[in-house]
Amino acid sequence: MKKPLLIIFICLICLSTSLGQGLQIGVKGSLNSTWLLNNHVLDASANDQTYIPSFGQYYGLSGAMFFNEKLGIEANVLYDTHRQKYSDEDETFESETTLHRISVPLMFKIRSKTGAFFEIGAIYNSLTTAEFTLAVDSFSFPTQDVRDKMAKSSIDAMFGIGVDINMFAGLSLTTALRFWGSMTDLRGVDAFGGDLSDPLWLTAAYNGEYQQTRAASAGFLMGLTYSIGKIAGD
């Protein structure tokens, strides 16, 4: 995590210095609503399996470089936890898939003189661990390592709206809403831990048809940023 972050920040600092514009560095974190969406689960009877609203979080460091007073680019390096819970209508079982990822968003950012901003871009996710847990009534099965059933990397599209609230000496409080969803297949498992890429499981449970798995998230972000140079409103 440290090596790519160092490279990003060195590049941003060098570009900012050469262009004579503004640089922001800071720390950010977010609480998120998280989903792993697959049509086999979506189309299943609630008597068999259904989604439960799930939540995750990320935190890490950020750097942004502004080409002029309004337009810039931002990169983050984040440790991301993405969860999906399942159950059935009668709540006879509860299961959960938990992904831990290193996420690197790269975004175009438009910032007004008031500090309000809009951001849009893409996120590269690198999977570090993936676990599946299942509990039936009061009995919990051992945690399964399902990393081999997941895609090792994925790409998300994202956008966000927020505001930098100036405090003092170049320090700002950042708040934002971010929304993102995967553009690539994550593969994965269903509510019972069945491999959604395994032809045998697909034949037994889903008439042999393969369906892609997509992640979706929305979250409230907060952070502290420090501004250097000319940035709109500073």
Q: What does this molecule look like?
A:
By secondary structure, the protein is mainly beta. The chain contains 3 helices and 11 strands. It has helices spanning 2-19, 39-42, 199-206; strands spanning 22-38, 50-52, 54-66, 71-87, 93-111, 116-136, 139-140, 144-145, 153-168, 171-182, 213-228. Strands 1-3-4-5-6-9-10-11 form an 8-stranded antiparallel barrel. A hairpin with a 5-residue loop joins strand 4 (71-87) and strand 5. The radius of gyration is 20 Å and the shape is elongated.
How would you summarize the topology of this molecule?
Elements lengths: L1 H18 L2 E17 H4 L7 E3 L1 E13 L4 E17 L5 E19 L4 E21 L2 E2 L3 E2 L7 E16 L2 E12 L16 H8 L6 E16 L6
Antiparallel strand pairs: 1-3, 1-11, 2-4, 3-4, 4-5, 5-6, 6-7, 6-8, 6-9, 9-10, 10-11
Major sheet: 8 strands, antiparallel, barrel
Helix content: 10-25%
Number of strands: 11
CA radius of gyration is 20 Å
Q: Assign the structural class, choosing from mainly alpha, mainly beta, alpha/beta, alpha+beta, or little secondary structure.
A: mainly beta
The rounded distance between the terminal residues' Cα atoms is 31 Å
- The proportion of residues in beta strands is over 45%
Mean pLDDT: 89
Q: Quaternary state, please?
A: single chain
State the strand order across the main sheet: 1-3-4-5-6-9-10-11
How many DSSP helices?
3
Cα shape: elongated
Keywords summarizing the entry:
mainly beta, 234 residues, 11 strands, 8-stranded antiparallel beta barrel, 3 helices
